[in-house]
Amino acid sequence: MAGKPVRPVNAIDQTRRMLSLVTYLKERPGARIEDVARAFGITEDELVSDLDVLPMCGTSFRGGDLLDIDTDGDRIWWHNPDDVAEPLRLAADEATALLVAARAVSTLPGLRESDRQALLRANAKLEAAAGEAAGASARLSVTFESEGGVFADVDRAISERRRLWIRYYSPARDELSEREIDPIRLVSVGHTYVEAWCRRSEARRTFRLDRVAEIKILDEPSAPPEIELRDLSEALVQPAAEDPEVVVEVGPSGRWVAEYYPHDSADELPDGGLRITLRTPDPTSLRRLALRLGRDGRIVSPSDLADSARRAAREALAAYDGPQGVVDAVRGVNERPE
Question: How far apart are the C-alpha atoms of 53 and 315, rounded to whole Å?
């Protein structure tokens, strides 16, 4: 039976599966979806997700020779297996790019040793075949940003089903916090994130990797509850029905808020502004929105969040403009723009 995957998704394991899937489908034209999913030990939804990605893969870095794979909902058809099966010939620039990338990935901390050794063996074969291009690639190197090590640790924790301890910077609160999380999957939407079950909040949370100040893989097993994975193709932030409700009023210059933030409703106001109702698991994150809007908007409810925004305005401007500046700033946060 088709169903949403509830177990952790590991990027390396998924890549392995998709590579095996190509060989499997080549040998079994018209294979049934249910049979293939059973053979790979995944749900039909996971298989269909893989099939959505495969047509974007192929043998040419320049966009040609892509896999022509589709499904009629029951069976899977691969229309050009013979074309794609032709021996791969790399141009000099392609070989150089591949060698540089492979060397860089092999140095990532947290990479499983078996994967590292397999990558090094493949790299050695590629160097032998590339000839002079291999010499050019040796003069190039790639340095990963700090999130590279975090990515490797998260990916390893997902693979080994282990819990993580992190020190995480929250820009909404401008603070570092310590958390233990059970990682579920890595996602990329502009930046790279780990979706996880946060033991401190006892809820699903999404953490941006470049905001992780410190990370440790713990001995405790990762045991996130069985939750339905969300479709993040539209947006990373997807409020749930149980999240707290926040009401914000904005003037004409603040109408962009309705385009930027997912919301339940956006009602027109007489002056051309909007009364926006939205939900968020962390209402305090909207305090910065109120400060950014200034006189172009205000938080209506909940009242404690509105009070918090007013206090933040006082603290931010007290050192700059004196008493009158504070009065003007607080008025902007507290009153709807004219």
Answer: 49
